[in-house]
Amino acid sequence: QEAWGDGNDYLKQRLWRSGFKVCPKCEKKDMNSVDVGAGCRMNGDAYGTSRFTCNSCDYKTSFHYDEASDPYYYETRDWSRNPVRQVAHDYAGLPPVTIDPDGSENRRRQAADKEGEWKKVDGKWVPA
């Protein structure tokens, strides 16, 4: 049995929760599946890999199945039918954090905030 396609658990769980009908990437009901058998036991129980492909966005992933297992896709054994909460913020596009190791920038700001350093002009506070 081999893994095939995207192994991202979050996306795989979304596909599984939809009953393998809705693509977790493009949200379209355009999934196709193919079972690739790896073997068959003496009692007739088969095992192998189910390959899922979205015909719209070409998303691919796979699940291992075993007819003797409960559940059928045994890697879903500990998954919940309730959705996983995704991280609310993507911090990838934020500017880098500047570090002020000697504190000079902070001292400059504090000095500028002292009383008498600011005056109000046309309803706005500006440095004096």
Can you describe this structure?
This protein has helices at residues 9-17, 104-112; strands at 31-40, 46-54, 60-66, 118-121, 124-127. The protein is an alpha+beta fold and 128 residues long. It has a three-stranded antiparallel β-sheet, with no helix packed on it. Strands 4-5 form a two-stranded antiparallel sheet. It is elongated.
Specify the structural class. alpha+beta
Question: Which sequence of SSEs, written as H and E, runs from N to C?
Answer: HEEEHEE
According to DSSP, the number of beta strands is 5
End-to-end C-alpha gap: 74 Å
Taking the sheet with the most strands, its summary is: 3 strands, antiparallel
Mean pLDDT: 82
Discrete helix count: 2
The global form is: elongated
The gyration radius over C-alpha positions equals 28 Å
Q: What strand order characterises the main sheet?
A: 1-2-3
Query: What share of the residues lie within helices?
Result: 10-25%
Strand content: 25-35%
